[in-house]
Amino acid sequence: MPKQVDRAARREEILTAAVRVFARQGYGGSRIEDIAREAGIAKGSVYLYFGSREEMLAAAFDGLAARSRELLAEVGRHPGGGSERLRFLVRSVMRLLAQERDLSRVLLDVWSMGVREPDWIDMAGFYRDYRAAVTAQLTAGERHGTEVADAVDPVSHATVLVGAIEGCVLQALFDPSVDLAALAEPIVSLLVPPSR
Question: What pTM, to 2 d.p., does this model score?
Fold first, then answer.
C-alpha cells in the first residue's frame, strides 16, 4: 500500500526548506533543485505544492504576516493599560523576529536586489499595522494616565519604536553575536512610557 502523505505538513516542510535555502544562498542564487534537495524530495514534488520561488517566498511572508496579526490580536486581549500592553507587544515581536531570523534575512536580500514593492509582499501595510498597534497603545496610555512626552505625537513615537526594533533586527542579521530577543528590555526601558 502506498504511503499517505500529509499534504499540509509536506507543504510546510518545503516552505521551511525554501526559507533556509534562500537565507543561506540568497534568493537570487537559489534554485528549485536546491530547495528540493534541502527538503529531501524530488524536484517535481516541489511543483505539486508551489509553482515558483516567488510563490514560496510569498507564502512564507503570508505566514509571518498571519503570525503578526495573531500577535496584535493577543495584545488587545492582554491585561493592563496601554503601557503594559505595549511592553507585551515589544517583547512578543522581538521573540517572533528572533525565531524568524532566516525569513528576515531573505526579505532583506530581496529588498537589496531592487525588488522594492513586489505585488506579493506588502511591507508598507505590514509596517502600518505595527505602527497603528503601537499608536493605539500609546493613545490608550494617554487616556489612562501614562506619561507620554508632550513634544512627541503618538504616531511619530510609534514610528521610532518600530524603527528601533527593525534596527536591532538588522544588527542581529549582520552580527550573529547580537541576541535579538535580549534587546526587548532595552527597547522597553528607553521607548515605552512608564505608567503613572
Answer: 0.80
